[in-house]
């Protein structure tokens, strides 16, 4: 079966995948920096996030509006006022009781 995509369409798809990967990496970095030792004691048994924590984190990332900046992150840089505002909102949500509320919702799914 031959590939019927034009080179431009393939390049656009590759950029979308790269943008998504960059956004996920940013989310992981923000989540890791937002956790406090009281939230996650350093033990070998809980080295990673649970599925519910990942789902909750993604919900807050979207609620803060960071999902609108996935292309911006890879093509134009991150230093815009709107992005920084969305990032601050994400961190506020992530460090509030909203995170645990989202974790509980995810556990019920």
Write structural notes for this entry:
The protein is mainly α and 109 residues long. The protein has one domain. Helices cover 68% and strands 0% of the residues. The protein contains five helices and no strands. Helix 2 (51-64) packs antiparallel against helix 4 and helix 2 (51-64) packs across helix 5. The longest helix has 28 residues, at 7-34. The protein is flat, with a radius of gyration of 17 Å. Mean pLDDT is 73; it is low at 35-46.
Structural class: mainly alpha
> How far apart are the termini?
39 Å
Number of strands: 0
| Fraction of helical residues | 55-70%
Number of helices: 5
Question: Averaging pLDDT over every residue, what do you get?
Answer: 73
Main β-sheet, in a few words? Answer: none
- How many separate domains? 1
Strand % is under 5%
What shape does the CA trace take?
flat
Low-pLDDT ranges = 35-46
Order of helices and strands: HHHHH
Q: Rg to the nearest angstrom?
A: 17 Å
């Amino acid at each position: 079966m031959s590939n019927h995509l034009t080179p431009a369409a393939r390049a656009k798809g590759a950029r979308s995948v790269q943008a998504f990967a960059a956004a996920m990496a940013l989310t992981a970095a923000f989540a890791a920096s937002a956790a406090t030792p009281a939230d996650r004691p350093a033990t070998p048994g809980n080295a990673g996030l649970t599925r519910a924590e990942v789902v909750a984190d993604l919900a807050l990332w979207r609620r803060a509006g960071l999902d609108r900046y996935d292309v911006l992150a890879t093509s134009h840089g991150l230093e815009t006022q709107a992005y920084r505002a969305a990032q601050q909102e994400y961190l506020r949500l992530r460090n509030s009781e909203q995170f645990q509320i989202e974790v509980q919702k995810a556990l019920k799914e």
